[in-house]
Design goal:
The protein has about 130 residues and is mainly alpha-helical. The chain has a single domain, classed as Endonuclease V (Orthogonal Bundle). The protein is about 60% helix and about 5% strand. It has 5 helices and 2 strands. The chain has a two-stranded antiparallel sheet with strand order 1-2. The longest helix is centred in the C-terminal third of the chain and has 30 residues. The chain is elongated. The relative contact order is 0.19.
Length: about 130
Protein backbone atom coordinates (compact mmCIF):
# COMPACT_ATOMS: atom_id res chain seq x y z
CA UNK A 1 0.00 0.00 0.00
CA UNK A 2 1.17 3.49 -0.75
CA UNK A 3 -0.02 7.07 -0.92
CA UNK A 4 1.68 8.46 -4.02
CA UNK A 5 0.59 12.03 -3.37
CA UNK A 6 1.34 13.14 -6.93
CA UNK A 7 -1.08 15.13 -9.07
CA UNK A 8 -3.83 12.62 -10.00
CA UNK A 9 -3.87 14.03 -13.55
CA UNK A 10 -0.35 12.58 -13.92
CA UNK A 11 -1.46 9.04 -13.10
CA UNK A 12 -2.58 6.33 -15.50
CA UNK A 13 -5.95 4.73 -14.81
CA UNK A 14 -4.33 1.69 -13.20
CA UNK A 15 -2.33 3.72 -10.66
CA UNK A 16 -5.20 6.16 -10.06
CA UNK A 17 -7.61 3.34 -9.23
CA UNK A 18 -4.91 1.47 -7.33
CA UNK A 19 -4.17 4.37 -5.02
CA UNK A 20 -7.91 4.89 -4.50
CA UNK A 21 -8.27 1.29 -3.33
CA UNK A 22 -5.24 1.68 -1.10
CA UNK A 23 -6.80 4.68 0.68
CA UNK A 24 -9.71 2.37 1.53
CA UNK A 25 -7.26 -0.33 2.62
CA UNK A 26 -5.46 2.07 4.97
CA UNK A 27 -8.78 3.09 6.52
CA UNK A 28 -9.73 -0.58 6.88
CA UNK A 29 -6.46 -1.29 8.67
CA UNK A 30 -6.93 1.71 10.96
CA UNK A 31 -10.50 0.73 11.83
CA UNK A 32 -9.45 -2.89 12.48
CA UNK A 33 -6.56 -1.59 14.61
CA UNK A 34 -3.97 -3.37 12.47
CA UNK A 35 -0.39 -2.24 12.85
CA UNK A 36 0.70 0.07 10.01
CA UNK A 37 3.87 1.38 11.66
CA UNK A 38 6.01 0.05 8.81
CA UNK A 39 4.10 2.17 6.28
CA UNK A 40 4.45 5.20 8.53
CA UNK A 41 8.18 4.68 9.11
CA UNK A 42 8.91 4.17 5.39
CA UNK A 43 7.07 7.34 4.35
CA UNK A 44 4.36 5.48 2.46
CA UNK A 45 1.36 7.21 4.01
CA UNK A 46 0.35 10.40 5.76
CA UNK A 47 -2.70 9.49 7.84
CA UNK A 48 -3.77 13.11 8.16
CA UNK A 49 -4.14 13.34 4.38
CA UNK A 50 -6.05 10.12 3.62
CA UNK A 51 -9.49 11.73 3.29
CA UNK A 52 -8.19 14.69 1.28
CA UNK A 53 -6.22 12.38 -1.01
CA UNK A 54 -9.21 10.09 -1.48
CA UNK A 55 -11.31 13.07 -2.53
CA UNK A 56 -8.63 14.25 -5.01
CA UNK A 57 -8.49 10.79 -6.56
CA UNK A 58 -12.29 10.59 -6.80
CA UNK A 59 -12.44 14.00 -8.47
CA UNK A 60 -9.98 12.83 -11.15
CA UNK A 61 -11.79 9.52 -11.55
CA UNK A 62 -15.05 11.35 -12.18
CA UNK A 63 -13.32 13.78 -14.57
CA UNK A 64 -12.28 10.72 -16.58
CA UNK A 65 -15.86 9.44 -16.64
CA UNK A 66 -15.39 6.72 -14.03
CA UNK A 67 -18.11 5.90 -11.53
CA UNK A 68 -17.31 6.21 -7.85
CA UNK A 69 -19.58 4.37 -5.45
CA UNK A 70 -17.34 3.80 -2.44
CA UNK A 71 -17.41 6.63 0.09
CA UNK A 72 -14.52 6.52 2.51
CA UNK A 73 -15.61 5.24 5.95
CA UNK A 74 -14.99 7.35 9.03
CA UNK A 75 -11.80 6.59 10.91
CA UNK A 76 -9.82 7.89 13.86
CA UNK A 77 -6.09 8.50 13.76
CA UNK A 78 -4.49 7.31 16.98
CA UNK A 79 -0.90 6.75 15.93
CA UNK A 80 1.76 8.96 14.31
CA UNK A 81 0.65 10.94 11.29
CA UNK A 82 3.39 9.81 8.89
CA UNK A 83 4.81 11.48 5.80
CA UNK A 84 5.30 11.02 2.08
CA UNK A 85 8.00 12.30 -0.26
CA UNK A 86 6.05 13.52 -3.29
CA UNK A 87 9.15 14.23 -5.39
CA UNK A 88 10.58 10.76 -4.77
CA UNK A 89 7.19 9.18 -5.41
CA UNK A 90 6.78 11.05 -8.69
CA UNK A 91 10.22 9.95 -9.85
CA UNK A 92 9.43 6.36 -8.87
CA UNK A 93 6.01 6.42 -10.55
CA UNK A 94 7.13 7.85 -13.88
CA UNK A 95 10.21 5.65 -13.78
CA UNK A 96 8.17 2.46 -13.54
CA UNK A 97 5.09 3.30 -15.63
CA UNK A 98 5.24 4.56 -19.21
CA UNK A 99 1.57 5.63 -19.14
CA UNK A 100 2.12 7.73 -16.02
CA UNK A 101 5.23 9.26 -17.58
CA UNK A 102 3.20 10.21 -20.66
CA UNK A 103 0.40 11.72 -18.53
CA UNK A 104 3.01 13.64 -16.52
CA UNK A 105 4.59 15.04 -19.69
CA UNK A 106 1.18 15.94 -21.13
CA UNK A 107 0.21 17.73 -17.91
CA UNK A 108 3.55 19.58 -17.87
CA UNK A 109 3.08 20.61 -21.52
CA UNK A 110 -0.44 21.87 -20.75
CA UNK A 111 0.81 23.84 -17.72
CA UNK A 112 3.57 25.36 -19.85
CA UNK A 113 1.04 26.43 -22.51
CA UNK A 114 -1.15 28.09 -19.88
CA UNK A 115 1.82 29.99 -18.39
CA UNK A 116 3.04 30.97 -21.86
CA UNK A 117 -0.43 32.34 -22.70
CA UNK A 118 -0.60 34.28 -19.42
CA UNK A 119 2.85 35.70 -20.06
CA UNK A 120 1.87 36.78 -23.59
CA UNK A 121 -1.29 38.43 -22.28
CA UNK A 122 0.72 40.29 -19.62
CA UNK A 123 3.13 41.54 -22.28
CA UNK A 124 0.22 42.75 -24.42
CA UNK A 125 -1.23 44.68 -21.49
CA UNK A 126 2.18 46.19 -20.67
CA UNK A 127 2.58 47.43 -24.25
CA UNK A 128 -0.79 49.20 -24.19
Amino acid sequence: MRMWGVNPKCMCDKHLLGEHVEMHMFVGCINKRKNIDGYLEKGLVNLGLIRKRHDELVQEMERRGMNHKSPLPNFLIESGVGFIDKKKNLADLIGRCFRCMKKYRDAADEEFKVKEKEHSENLSVAVL
